[in-house]
Specification:
2 copies of one chain form a homodimer. Chain A has 6 helices and 10 strands; from the N terminus they run ββββαβββααβααββα. The interface between A and B is medium-sized, with 28 and 28 residues.
DNA sequence: GCAAAAGTGTTCGTACTACACCCATGG
DNA sequence: CCATGGGTGTAGTACGAACACTTTTGC
């Protein structure tokens, strides 16, 4: 029907992490990179007998030692034909949210370095990866307002002030503490634990936990989570 | 680095149309289809030197004679390795909204038939196209609530009752006419025209038009369009 | 004058906004 | 007793929900 198609299929992973009031993304540097050896998103070519989802998981594990169980498909980049100067490559980008304190990153296989980069200190990346990352950040911001994804970025038990800070940081907005707390608690998907923060300054703060089960029930009932800001 | 990758890249188009109070989708039947010759979404393999976006446009034009200027990327289907039994094929699905009255559909190139199918009378489709369509419908419903996409499906000038009906049909919900009208008009993105409906039953109805410019201004100002229902 | 669809206003309740002070602990 | 963050209540407002009758035309 047509000349033989010669297009490669790759996947890229945008892994966001939150720690100490800052949003980070996981980047790698290839060992045998193209001349300039820019930092890049983890990723690589999909194998013939492997689903796209498995491909991202595998590449991420291989390159950074990070294992993630939930990836969301972000977008497929294939409009710029020369985005990879070597071949025609389209890339299916996936993003994930993790708590960095639970992970041990490690440069593996063909990778030279792995590192968390603060989101507003991103260098020029390989290929169109700056563009991909930009789109991922937009999606993250949007999702934060209508899905309780903040909890994936935090430890199992967390302070309300951390959650609050996470929203401020990602959305780059001030929020009103009292109203934010009321709003979040009103959904009933965040519960107090018996524990208190080990931080020994100021009044001891209760630790909270996210009730995933409750959240799923509410979704079934059609209640939709939404956080707005002034 | 690895064995030669052998994955084909296709695009598929989900073209939604609205007419006479019904939502339709455009399907084709291949001439030399696989045995069963199921109906299918328009689409095909991407050329080596062609962007994904151009590929959907070309395929749609070739197969159905329909020209669309705005496609939105829906999702990339590539987790089911055997979704096409002949080869490993991943498909980047795009969707578009059109006013069918402005189009002349015509089976072209390798296509035997082209037809609008009402959304709740979809037969079993080729490959995983039922799944793709399902996802497209979900996205359409979601988008309808927070973007004024209804206007892409209607003629330039339309009746309020048509708009109202469009929302009811797509969302499969009753809506409250008075509140709906107030809400839509409150955004200021829909204007009265001087014209009246040619329908000669009941009180003559004003025709309205969508003010795209005004909408873009409001977006810049950060106002976000949202329609909720009881 | 009746059938058929278009057009419209008000009340009520809920949910978001804005705002400032007290609390519990460690040093 | 002071410094540090944690924790809370209330009043005003704006927006969505519910609801039914009048208007204009063709036949």
């Amino acid at each position: 029907m047509e000349n033989l198609q010669n297009i490669r299929v790759a996947v890229d992973a945008i892994v966001f992490g939150y720690q100490n009031g800052q949003l980070y993304v996981l980047l790698i540097q290839q060992k045998f990179g193209s001349a300039e050896s820019y930092w890049a998103l983890p990723g690589g070519l999909v194998k013939n007998d492997e689903s796209l989802n498995d491909a991202v998981k595998r590449e991420l594990k291989e390159e950074t030692n990070v294992e993630v169980n939930y990836f969301e498909q972000l977008f497929t980049f294939g409009d710029d034909i020369t985005r990879d100067p070597r071949n025609r490559v389209i890339s299916v980008a996936y993003f994930a949210l993790v708590d960095p304190s639970k992970l041990e990153i490690k440069a593996d296989s063909d990778v030279d370095k792995v590192q968390w980069f603060q989101i507003n200190e991103i260098p020029k990346l390989a290929f169109d990866h700056n563009l991909i990352l930009k789109k991922a950040i937009e999606r993250l911001k949007a999702k934060l307002s209508y899905e309780p994804i903040g909890f994936d970025l935090l430890p199992k038990e967390f302070l309300f002030s951390e959650l609050e800070n996470l929203y401020c940081t990602i959305l780059e907005k001030e929020i009103e503490r009292r109203n934010f707390r009321k709003k979040i608690l009103s959904f009933g998907i965040v519960e107090e634990t018996e524990n208190y923060s080990p931080i020994k300054t100021g009044r001891p703060a209760k630790l909270f936990r996210f009730n995933k089960l409750k959240y799923k029930e509410l979704i079934k009932e059609g209640i939709h989570f939404e956080i707005k800001f002034a």
